[in-house]
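Structure tokens please, single chain.
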Amino acid sequence: MPPWFQMLLWLGLLALVAALVAAVLALRRLAVRAEAVLAIAEQELRPLVARTHALIEEARGLTHEAKREVERIQTVTDHVSDLAHGVARVLAAVGGFTRAGQLIGLAVGLRRGVDVFIRRMRRREGGDHE
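Here you go.
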């Protein structure tokens, strides 16, 4: 092998080694930056994750409390519904008494009217016959 060819091979090998060293150094810098970014992200994410867990627990508590309140409202609504049915029955009964009272009042009024009419007729008859 001629010496100039060996020299070219050595220069090529040297260039290749220099390129590899530059690539390795660039990869090292990239790894250091990535590590720094990941450390920052980890520092920022830990409090966010803790807050997220706290918010989730608070949401669970609020959900359970809302469920209990809805159950209480359902109970109150059931009691109000029962009370409304009872009041409706009482009102229907009172309405029946009121109608009966109106009919009795009408009958009493008619009787008094008839009595007054009969008395006046008797007076007229009695006054004419006297």
